[in-house]
Design goal:
The complex is a heterotrimer of chains A (336), B (292) and C (351). Chain B is 72% helix and 0% strand. Chain B has 292 residues and is mostly helical. Chain B has a domain of 168 residues: MetI-like (MetI-like fold), CATH 1.10.3720. In chain C, helix 3 crosses helix 13 and helix 7 crosses helix 8. Classes of the chains: A alpha/beta (336), B mainly alpha (292), C mainly alpha (351). Chains in contact: A-B, A-C, B-C.
């Protein structure tokens, strides 16, 4: 038995040597996890000796771990604050990857169609002020829908989340009440509700709990066939999240040089109000030059080939001028 | 034991006392049944929900991106094996060594301190060990790794193995040792070749119990092994693990992932049950005294 | 070695060795006899150096256990320094867990940990003692092995599998049948009111109870078997029924150890992480109703540790870890002392 163990050990060592794999590790947002997972899978199929391992632990985790240097890159849909950037020992460049939308997904017994939500209604629900599904604020904009007399169970994120950032950013813009009591951030003090871990956990909870509502990225609602609401935008139109409405949200946005921008509650009449860019946090001066080169190569791949894969997963590709800006920035700012 | 209890002549026992006696028996029996119901329920569900998804693809493939059906947990199974191998390299020598110390050298105050410390270590929540492993290994090394996961789990194995080793060595009669010394065998030889060999069955069972206990641990791996969707045999890279994968899939919304979570759980529990059952068979004489 | 020590689960009775000749002839030490001859021929008197080396190696392994615990404690204290400094003792009675505004108070987690553990004990203690009594005093001999094996199996199930079962089996069961029933019958107490999610404090308490039963049951069994037979016989001789014999002859003598077992179960419950995280609802708030979601000290660390942005946030989480470490240390130490006082110093206490 000892001999066969020894043989096995030798084989294992040889195997890992022969493979000569380069492993990169990234962590962060669950918002773009489906598309990132697809990208890293495809990239690995094209470059079989490179494995980019991405763990979706939440945007807060992405920011934290890239700062600590325990991962080669991070990912977040809530851009780092000025304070965080100043405090961080590892300087990063925010590289936008896709546009996505956060939708209010629900599980209302007896209601299978689309439900419209005004901004006030959403704020009221998540503040705990609107506690029943058949409340006036919801019913008045949904004539013809029979709401049950059931309590609303709010589901939010229990981990540090960029999706939370996007959603609370939106709520802060449309509701004074929200801005005053809760504010925006990757991890806030929720007035009501249960916590789920990751977009996955929140979607899972919504599916399990009748009468629940939560905020998740569009693809999670689509992949799991969870009905989601139509939200009223700043032009008073009710818009359903889709590729078109997400792209419309980014139209006319002035992209700053460091790429940190918010596009919630934009002016466009067809724009979906809760949309956002999501970013990869790329260290500008990576510790391992070889890995830095591979990562840079991946970024260019992502900006060309990767952008063609987004629509299948309901993420909107980046606007052309943003792509050009990014290529220039990555070439200039990210070493080697 | 006390099973020869017999109630004395009926007229000496009042109705109230007899009623209490019956009541207590009924309570104890129902407690036993009540305790076993969840056990059967859990195993039942594991088998029913998991067996359908344990197929060749599951056992040989790596996970697919979320939303795509298929893929498997092969890398998680291998990853668990890798982490446990590292854990054993730490837990076995330190555990057996401490056990030898406590039995052969430590029948004094210092030995008591070590014994107490081992019990303390046994009671430390696994999440706290995870925090310590993160600060001590992951942060300085600047990456998550199978190695740090193995360290965390190895630390948790030590107290169980140490106690088992100590107990089994204490069971070896002094006569045997004295005989060995009398023949001129040095202490170290006696301990290793005679005492430990005699106690080996019990020591091995202790090791297997420790193994079974840490195989299912998830919390410390959250911030050490971290997870990986690819194959990994390298110690200094993040690794998938069965327990981590079951956790991630269980809280996700994807039906396919739920099925795979049950399947992964079934495999995990199967490995653990095999270890525990083996322990029972080896110590079959100890069962009658109602050990644990 | 004390021959009257109670036999534990791992103990295999060693074949008696009445004569020196048999030592050489025993199959297990057959090789040993060859070694004996070899050693005798090669001057064992100069074995002092190897002995010393061996002794040092063994001592180092023992010390390593101590070193590890000290290292763990040190890391916890060191990394929570910032939070300790910032909040002081106020950390433990602050109600707010507000990462955005940098306010960290641990009360919701302490409350959640205590309530879920207390609920778990409330459910587990009667069940465990019942099982232990059944297995040691009432059960037919053949069943004893099977039942004790099955109870032990409960201890072997990993926490994450309990959580998996909790999410998909227990929570819907609670949500659809048990919680409405409790609300109807016991809702007036205030403990069973509010929206019924299935997930929440009640689910966490029930799962923890199942996980803690094997711990308490095994200790109770061990201390009950440690009670000498003459105690039972004495009570029986006075005309007691079986229950009275158990109560007065066994449980009364073993009660200190049983309390120790309960405290050990408490220690296990306090540190429980995965199963609780998966069913408790992850909401840092103090609520009276058991239907409400909650949060425990271990769960908040599991959920938020890898993403605590900001050093103060991380430090606050480590401080919770430190508090958990100290509490479980005290609880376990107390439990061991109580159990050892019944069974004698070296009895194995499975935790």
């Amino acid at each position: 038995m000892i001999r066969s163990l020894r043989v096995l050990l030798c084989l294992a060592v040889l195997a890992s040597c022969a493979l000569a794999q380069t492993n990169l590790n990234g962590a962060g947002a669950t918002f773009p996890y489906p598309i990132y997972s697809k990208w890293f899978n495809e990239y690995h199929n094209e470059h079989s000796n490179i494995e980019i391992n991405y763990q979706s632990i939440g945007s807060g985790g992405g920011i934290r771990q890239v700062q600590a240097g325990t991962v080669d890159f991070g990912a977040s849909d809530g851009p780092m604050t000025d304070e965080q950037m100043a405090q961080s020992k590892v300087k990063v460049l925010h590289v936008p990857t896709v546009l996505g939308s956060v939708v209010p997904a629900y599980n209302i017994p007896g209601v299978s169609g689309d439900v419209k939500f005004t901004a006030e209604a959403l704020a009221g629900i998540f503040l705990g002020k609107i506690s029943k599904w058949n409340d006036k604020a919801i019913a008045s904009v949904n004539p013809g829908v029979k709401f049950p007399d059931q309590n609303i169970t709010v589901v939010h994120r229990s981990d540090g989340s960029g999706t939370t950032y996007i959603f609370t950013d939106y709520l802060s813009k449309v509701s004074q009440d929200w801005q005053g009591t809760v504010g925006k951030g990757t991890s806030v003090k929720w007035p009501v509700g249960l916590g789920g871990k990751g977009n996955e956990g929140v979607a899972g909870s919504i599916r399990q709990l009748p009468g629940s509502i939560g905020y998740i990225e569009l693809i999670y609602a689509l992949q799991n066939k969870i009905p989601f609401g139509i939200v009223q935008n700043s032009s008073k139109n009710f818009i359903k999240a889709s590729l078109q409405s997400t792209t419309a949200a980014a139209v006319g946005v002035k992209m700053p040089a460091d790429f940190r921008v918010s596009i919630t509650n934009p002016p466009g009449k067809d724009a979906y109000p809760i949309a956002s860019f999501t970013w990869l946090l790329i260290p500008t001066n990576p510790a391992d030059a070889n890995k830095g080169k591979i990562l840079k190569d991946f970024l260019f791949w992502m900006l060309d080939k990767g952008q063609t894969m987004t629509e299948a997963l309901s993420y909107a590709p980046l606007p052309k001028q943003v792509v050009d800006m990014e290529k220039a920035a990555v070439t200039k700012q990210v070493k080697p | 034991m006390a099973n020869s209890a017999s109630t004395p002549a009926p007229q000496a026992v009042s109705l109230g006392r007899r009623f209490a006696n019956q009541g207590a028996t009924a309570f104890a029996v129902s407690a036993a049944i009540l305790v076993l119901v969840p056990l059967l329920a859990i195993f039942g569900y594991l088998v029913i929900k998991g067996i359908g998804s344990v197929n060749l693809a599951f056992l040989t493939q790596t996970p697919k991106p979320p939303g795509e059906v298929g893929g498997g947990m092969a890398n998680a199974i291998v990853g668990t094996g890798l982490i446990l191998a590292v854990a054993s390299l730490i837990g076995l020598p330190l555990g057996i060594g401490s056990g030898i110390y406590l039995a052969e050298y430590g029948r004094n105050r210092f030995g008591d301190l070590i014994r107490f410390t081992a019990d303390v270590l046994n009671g430390v929540p696994s999440i706290v060990i995870g925090i310590a492993a993160y600060s001590l290994v992951v942060v300085p090394q600047k990456h998550f790794s199978a190695f740090s996961g193995g360290i965390a789990l190895g630390i948790m194995m030590i107290p169980t193995i140490a106690r088992a080793t100590e107990e089994m060595l204490l069971m070896v009669p002094n006569v045997v040792r004295e005989a060995a010394y009398g023949l001129g065998i040095p202490k170290w030889r006696t301990t290793l070749s005679i005492s430990l060999r005699t106690a080996s069955a019990g020591v091995i069972t202790g090791c297997m119990l420790a193994f079974a206990r840490v195989a299912g641990e998830t919390a410390p791996l959250l911030f050490t092994a971290f997870g990986n969707q690819f194959w990994n045999l390298k110690l200094n890279q993040p690794t998938a693990a069965l327990s981590l994968q079951v956790f991630t899939y269980a809280i996700s919304p994807y039906d396919d992932w739920h099925k795979q979570a049950w399947a992964g759980a079934l495999i995990l529990i199967f490995l653990i049950v095999v270890a525990v059952a083996a322990v029972r068979i080896v110590t079959s004489r100890g069962m009658l005294k109602g050990g644990a | 070695m004390n021959p009257s020590e109670p036999l534990g689960q791992l103990q295999k009775p060693v074949v008696a060795v009445p004569s020196l000749a048999q030592v050489g002839r025993e199959p297990k030490t057959g090789v040993g006899s060859a070694i004996l001859r070899k050693i005798r021929d090669t001057h064992p008197r100069s074995s002092r150096v190897p002995d010393a080396v061996f002794g040092v190696i063994i001592l180092l392994s023992a010390i390593s256990v101590f070193a590890i615990v000290v290292l763990v404690a040190w890391e916890l204290i060191d990394k929570s320094r910032m939070s300790l400094h910032q909040f002081g003792i106020g950390f433990f009675y602050g109600h707010d867990w507000d990462p955005v505004n940098g306010a960290f108070g641990a009360v919701p987690f302490i409350y959640g940990t205590l309530v879920s553990s207390f609920l778990a004990l409330l459910l587990a203690v009667p069940a465990s003692i019942g099982v232990a009594v059944f297995v040691t005093e009432m059960c037919p001999l053949r069943l004893r092995a099977i039942i004790s094996f099955l109870v032990e199996l409960l201890a072997a199930i990993p926490s994450v599998i309990y959580g998996l079962w909790g999410i998909f089996v227990l929570a819907p069961l609670l949500r659809e049948y048990v919680e409405p029933f409790l609300a109807r019958t016991l809702g007036w107490t205030g403990f069973f009111t509010g929206p019924m999610y299935g997930l929440g404090m009640l689910a966490a308490g029930i799962i923890m109870a199942i996980m803690v039963v094997p711990v308490i049951a095994s200790i109770t069994r061990e201390v009950m078997t440690a009670v000498p037979q003459n105690q039972r016989e004495a009570v029986l001789a006075l005309g007691a029924t079986r229950w009275e014999m158990i109560r007065m002859g066994v449980l009364r003598n073993a009660r200190i150890g049983i309390v120790g077992g309960i405290i050990l179960g408490l220690g296990r419950a306090l540190g429980e992480t995965m199963a609780v995280t998966m069913v408790i609802g992850n909401r840092p708030e103090v609520a009276r109703s058991l239907f409400a979601p909650g949060y425990t000290m271990a769960s908040v660390i599991a959920n938020e540790f890898t993403e605590a942005t900001g050093d103060l946030y991380l430090s606050a989480l480590v401080e919770i870890g430190l508090a958990l470490f100290i509490v479980t240390l005290v609880v376990n130490a107390l439990a061991r002392l109580l159990v050892w006082s019944i069974t004698g110093g070296t009895a194995r206490v499975r935790g």
